[in-house]
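Instructor's aside before we start: the two examples that follow are unrelated to each other. I chose them only because their records fit on one page, so don't look for a connection. First example below.
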Amino acid sequence: MVKILSDSTCDLPQELLDQYRVEVLPLHVLLGEEDHRDGVDITPDEIFQWSDANKTTPKTAAPTIEDAVECMRPLLADGSEILCFAISETMSASLNVMRLASQELEAEDKVFPFDSQNLSTGIGLLVIEAACMAQEGMEIQEIITRLEELRPLVHSSFVVDTLTYLHRGGRCSGMAALAGGMLKLHPKIVVTDGKMDVSKKYRGSLSKVVKAYVCDLEGGLRKAKKERVFITHSGCTPEIVKEVKDYLRSLSLFEEIIETRAGSVISSHCGPGTLGVLFLERA
């Protein structure tokens, strides 16, 4: 049997984790000296409150080897193999922690780390595909081969409401953050080969920006796999989310439009008001 394990940055809601039988290994969020587990004992809204009060961004950290060992041990108990997902290796040591944990458990032949080269529900899309293949009884090497074909077809992008959090986390200069705030600039950030790059800058209110961003995606959306599309955000207003949903419904392309809330790790770096539309292109 193949079991699926992902770190918490996949940002899948509990109902999908249950539906696809996915186990989650939480990353850590550090609010000063306080250590919290992503998705377990801290929420994005609590992070935003702390960050604004302290004028800084929380630090985030990969799971410990002990965390991973404790998570993997019961999954291996019945002789199953584990397919492991994590945020891109260029962004975190999370996947390497899983490798080290498999060595600690002397289970390298049973644990198969897979670099998503992505983040948030960009990982989640691959996790669900893998879970479906596992439930169909596919062998783990077959699943990995298929995932390697799917990985470059993941479309992950998002627009941010404020550059403040990216600046606090060292991902945007102070001058750029100041200029962006004054000019009401909202960058579109695209994940390519495991790295984040700014592909476009929108100007105006967040509602106007999100509408323009989603409309710009239409060409790609028409080439997408029909099963699902994610709207993943870090606390946008219901009105903005509804507008995105209505637009996607109007295209009549997807069997399922899934709204998810970005977890604490992703939210702590992007800040409130971030929204992305994520999907898989047809092979």
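Example two begins here.
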Amino acid sequence: MAMTEKKRKTDYAWQKKNYKRVGTKLYRGDAEAFEEWCREHNTSVNAALKEYVSQCLGRPLEKRSENKEAKDNEE
């Protein structure tokens, strides 16, 4: 079923409030080597970077719980 325009706007507003995108630029060769490393380790680039951030912070990354998601959808 297609997402309604209202739902799309609500989801976008929630993401804008709760997420922040972090990025970097790498030389093509380094980026390709990292992508290859991820393939060899059966993980995505995003998952590998999230794992590294978690290690740097010394704690698991925050996750949205099902209860919070249901509460947010009620608002």
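The two ends are 22 Å apart (CA to CA).
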